[in-house]
Every structure is written in C-alpha cells, then in structure tokens.
Amino acid sequence: MEWVRNIAFSYGYVIVIRRSKAKNGLVSYITLICDRGREYESKATIKNSGTKKINCNFQLVGPYIKQYDSWTLMVICNQHKHPPAQYMEGHAFARWLKEHEKHLILKERDENNVSTLKTRYNKCLKPRLSQNYGKAPMQVRGVNL
Fold this sequence. Notes:
Helix content: 25-40%
Order of helices and strands: HEEEEEHHH
Number of helices: 4
Shape: globular
Structural class: alpha+beta
C-alpha cells in the first residue's frame, strides 16, 4: 500500500485507509480513499469548526489474494473533486512521520519527508512527557537542573 501512497503523493494527493478487514490477524481487504473524502462528522455540540473534507469520490479497493501472495487493486472512482496540493509541507497527513523516520528524525535522510520543525519537535518531546508523567513541575525541574 506504500506504493499507492507514493504515487499519489508524487501527483499532490494523499491517500488514507478508510477501512480494512482482518482475518486471523492478517489484513485481507483494504479500502483506500483520498484524505479529503467523505463528509466531516462533527462531534462538538457548541463549537462549529472547519474541515478539509469535501466528499472527494476517489476510492480504491484491494483484496489480498493468498494463493498468489499479492494484492489486487481495483479502481472504484479515479476522479478527485479538488486540484492537487502544490506544496505538501502544509498538509497534515503528509507531515506524519514514517516508521523509519521515528528513529532517524533527520530531514536529509528522506527527500520526500515534508515534516515541519514542529512535527519533529513533538516527536522528540513525547518520550520526555511520558517519562515525567505524574510528577509535579517542581519535581521535573529539580531532576533536570
């Protein structure tokens, strides 16, 4: 599925998993859609927030064929309702760190990495937050001095 995401990314689109089915712990069927697909479902009762979802129809489905040990992709709809993104740096899904980037957070290692400084900072901050969970601010400062 990484191949699909890389191809879409090169054209300025981001593809996400809408649904997947697993049998015995192994994924056997997957539905991929544009990240701007479907309608935004607000969970807020008071605040009316904006959304990037515009019910884009692009959709792929792929069953895993065990006898061939491979995936088969079928195009349900190949049309997007929006133009491609010109700059992926501002795109929320595109900024997510990949598994290998979680260990190597250097931007120069991957030319397709469009994560921002804030994304990398948050990744570095996460272990410290979990290490100091439950401690008072003065306890944290006293240990770190």
